[in-house]
Amino acid sequence: MKVLGIESSCDECSAAVVEDGKKILSNVIASQIEIHKPYYGVVPEIASRKHTEWIAPVVKEAIAQSGIKKNEIDGIAVTYRPGLIGSLLVGLSFAKGLALSLSLPFVGVDHMLAHLYAPHLEHDITYPYLGLIISGGHTIIAKVEDFQTFTVLGTTIDDACGEAFDKVAKYYDLGYPGGVAIDRLAAKGNPEAFRFPKPKLHKGDHSYDVSYSGLKTAVVNQLDLFHNKKFEKTRENIAASFQKTAIDMIVQRVLKAAKDTGITKIVAGGGVSANSYLRKRLGDEPDITAIFPSLKLCTDNAAMIAGIGFHLLVSGQTSSYNLAAAARVPLFRKTYP
Ligand code: KG4
Ligand code: ZN
Fold this sequence. Notes:
The longest helix is centred in the last third of the chain and has 27 residues, at 235-261. Helices cover 39% and strands 20% of the residues. The protein contains 11 helices and 11 strands. By secondary structure, it is α/β, with parallel strands linked by helices. It folds into 2 domains: 2-116 and 299-332, 2-Layer Sandwich (Nucleotidyltransferase, domain 5); 127-292, Nucleotidyltransferase, domain 5, CATH 3.30.420. The strands form 2 sheets. The chain has a 6-stranded mixed β-sheet with strand order 10-9-6-7-8-11. The protein has a 5-stranded mixed β-sheet with strand order 3-2-1-4-5, sandwiched between helices. Bound molecules: 5'-O-[(R)-(carboxyoxy)(hydroxy)phosphoryl]adenosine and zinc ion (ZN). Residues 10, 135-137, 162, 165-166, 177-180, 183, 270-272, 274-275, 299-300 line the site of 5'-O-[(R)-(carboxyoxy)(hydroxy)phosphoryl]adenosine.
């Protein structure tokens, strides 16, 4: 079964054709990074306008690169939540129109579940496992039962992990996109140069939760307070110290979850799962099997949408043409979706 996937939830306009939820025939990603760079962040209005311009050629290119004909597509999967509402609407409306015109089933896909599916495109992964979904808008540690069922064990109580990377990078003019810039600078810095505080959220319901707002404030507003004077106050040292604190926090929680649940397989997804320190840190952990997507599949792409879309479609789950886009996922604290 060949599924066309469409992704437009943020600043990547992407379309892909994936066979049987596994074989990527094409994965076209048109990034808007250069367009948003001057603003140090994604400007929603510009993002949706660009998606409107790009969606048709991107889909056309994905079908061309896949080597199949339009009439060989068996179904369409599209991100319908969460994300920027104007951007989501472009992909969703386009998918509905295409499905209608080609008389194909279509299914709306949750972007976060798709991020977690990304490593399944490249690895044979059995359930259950602990899922670590870390992106610009979400930070989730979950017990994952199958491709669409998971229980949230922990999440952020304020900012998302990627958001903290982006805000620190913006404040110190470290580069855009922030996560990639900090990762690169950190490789040349000393993580001992600043000793940033870590939130104490160990009690009761918060065992696996994280918080990034305090860390962000410490890095941005109270840098000198945490400076270890033996080291220079350089951009590299700020990046390395911030990155270590931010990543150690989530690693400590997911390792606690592994110990408590006895589940030693950790599968990561989302933009921050591209972070080199995170990959090394979990990869070096004895008794843990850590599985990451390749770098291209960490950030937003339509292959992961088509991949999970296949499983939804073969299990008979299709969406109606009334499906609405949603910026947020309600009540994901206890169960997700
Ligand atoms: O999954 P994604 O492309 O979009 C969302 O669904 O949010 O994630 C984007 C986030 C941004 O916050 C970006 O700074 C972060 O992922 N990111 C990274 C790295 N690459 C991207 N954060 C840390 N280290 C990286 N190497
Ligand atoms: Zn994403």
